[in-house]
Amino acid sequence: MKIVLTTLNAKFIHSSLALRYLRSYTRAAFPALELVEYTINDVTMNIVADIYKRQPDVVAFSCYIWNIRETLDVIRNLKKVCPDVPVVLGGPEVTYDADFWMKQHPQIDAIIIGEGEQTFLELLQAYEEASRTGQPPRLKEVNGLAYRDGDMVRFSMPRAQIEDLDSIPSPYEDHLDELNNRVVYYEASRGCPFKCQYCLSSIEDGVRYFSLERVKSDLKRLIDHGVKTIKFVDRTFNINKKYAMEIFQFLIDNHNGTVFQFEITADILRADVLDFLTENAPPGIFRFEIGVQSTNDETNRLVQRIQRFDRLSRTVTQIKDSGKIAQHLDLIAGLPEEDYQSFRKTFNDVFALRPEELQLGFLKMLRGTGVRMRAEQHGYVYMDEAPYEILGNNVLSFADMQKIKRVEDVLEKYWNAHRMDHTLEWILAHQFETPFDFFQSFGDYWEKQGWSRIGHQLEDLFTRLRSFLAYNQVERLEHVVSLMKFDYLYNQKHRPRKLWWDDLMDKPELQKGYEAVYEVRDRLPADFARHAASEKEYYKHTLSTKASFDIQTWLETGDVVEGEFLLVVYFPYLEGKNNSFIVVEQDLSAVR
Fold first, then answer.
1. Pairing, β 87-90 against β 110-112
2. How confident is the model at residue 586 (pLDDT cuts 50, 70, 90)?
3. Strands 152-155 and 562-570
4. Percent of the chain having pLDDT more than 70?
């Protein structure tokens, strides 16, 4: 019997852990199983045609909020050309409301409810037996299933969780070439000890672990294969201190350049674990994703989220100060009883920690969650179809939500992209009451200009920020523009051909600048000084621009020394070698 096991990933770079578990669990009994991954951006009929040409006896789809619409489109068309091929669905999007999906979509033949490995194997065995005997498949005997019985939708007995997770063969024993140039997802445990009412993990009880020997073996195999990024999907990786420490130590000893991302709960990270990580973690190898969601105590109480923001702040600050581990902090707008002003405070509380990334998300009323069941209590209005994002509630209007979305837009483009960190720090320190007010004001201006409806190049991000600041008549705009020039040049890998500022330097001014740099070449890094010794090489490797203050002194001491300065950025054009720069005071009166 030939089985096609598939999903539609959000992007090609992603890979499906769920499919690989199902394949590893069933491959001994069904070696003809084919694992095929598409993306939500693929043309529907191209997917249908590809599945059709494989001539499957069963097709199974893994379903999530990000792919359910596209998956249903595929299924509707697939059933028209393969009407007799059973279509099986599984995954979190269909698990918690299987009756709805079966009744609304007659193309679905069965839905696997919950943990899928054992159910999927037994379902395939039932279909294989039916194919041999010519009798209807005995689906009632497969626990953990919603299935069609004539015009009726029926449910088999619930299936107990797999107690010994090591009994599931590793999803990463072979087929590793499928993972080349892709993000690999991995779990060392299943379940979550917390009951946050917006999260599907709150529905399950307890935490189960794979053995450390199994986890280390899997990770070593992936590392040796050359996987670049491994994202742990454990809900709270650090809940078991001893277990987490062993894995951290193993990865420190064996990482070989692979980057590992973990979801952690920062306020329960023990002090000794924190000290160990900040002292021993190789720079750039670990990334932590930390869900803050809200700093409103009443909101956290309503969603049953236990959190000590003071402890979280200390943890995030110590990690940031170490400079070794990048942090991604999450917020959720639209949680119960958090109005616009409360969310503004939440944003500013968390932004004050200056995480490398701050993701501003919006509450999604996922099927099966407590917030969805109690939606009427808080006046929630939300999308009928995935991703079920809220449109407003009793304290946050649709207009408020749209305002916050404009904050999210410029936050992604400017803060999370790290295109102009120095510029933003100056602006936030000198120009606006709070960071939220800056992002909100800029987001409103962006929308008013119609920029949200057109694309942008890198240069546009700088000119649009300059336009916004000029419109707001910010003080010392010339200093901000000088920092924007610095950020633009310093972050480029190569000497840019296109410049967005107007005060370009002519040849006599550039010559004067070269002479000034040549005089102080002993202050330069060795490779910069070597190229500065030759005028021809200097111009190949540098780009000069005017600055209204001494940026170098400001970066080193925080002092603002105003005047006519020349900023010279040096491009080494060597892999792994950062740009460098120098600021020199320059009298250009003689060349004007």
1. parallel
2. confident
3. unpaired
4. 99
Angle between the 271-280 and 241-254 helix axes, to the nearest 10 degrees? 0
Residue 522 C-beta-side C-alpha neighbours within 13 Å: 1
- Show the beta-strand stretches assigned E in 156-296: 183-186, 189-191, 207-209, 229-232, 259-264, 286-293
Q: 8 φ, ψ to 5°? A: -115, 105
Q: What's the token pair of residue 296?
A: 């409103």
One-letter amino acid for residue 558 of the chain: G
Q: Which of 225, 309, 322, 336 is nearest to 275 (CA)?
A: 322
Of 243, 240, 244, 236, whose CA–CA distance to 264 is shortest?
Answer: 236
Q: Tokens standing for 94?
A: 């269909």
Half-sphere exposure of 473 (CA within 13 A, CB side): 0
Cβ atoms of 114 and 205 within 8 Å: the answer is: no
Q: In terms of Cα–Cα distance, which of 270, 275, 281, 279 is closest to 243? A: 270
Q: What is the pLDDT of residue 592?
A: 35
Q: Is pLDDT above 60 for 53? A: yes
pLDDT of residue 431: 87
CA 590 to CA 592: how far, in whole Å? 6
Residue 132 tokens, joined: 């041999």
CA 153 – CA 333 distance, rounded (Å): 37
577 phi/psi in degrees, rounded to 5? -105, 120
Residue pLDDT, tens place only, 303-345: 999 999 999 999 999 999 999 999 999 999 999 999 999 999 9
Question: One-letter amino acid identity for 528?
Answer: F
Q: What span, in angstroms and rounded, lies between the C-alpha atoms of 254 and 72?
A: 42
Beta strand 542-549 with 562-570: parallel, antiparallel or unpaired?
A: antiparallel
CA proximity to 23, closest of 124, 158, 92: 124
Per-residue pLDDT, 587: 65
In angstroms, the CA 365 to CA 344 distance is: 22
Strands 580-585 and 381-382: unpaired
Which secondary structure element, helix H or strand E, spans residue 552, and what is its range? Answer: helix 551-557
Whole-number Å distance between alpha carbons of 107 and 100: 13
Q: What is the pTM of this model?
A: 0.94
pLDDT band at 590 (very low <50, low <70, confident <90, very high): very low
328: CB partners within 8 A, 6+ apart: 261, 287, 288, 289, 290, 355, 356, 357, 358, 359
pLDDT at residue 267, as a whole number: 95
Round to whole Å and give the CA distance between 481 and 477: 6
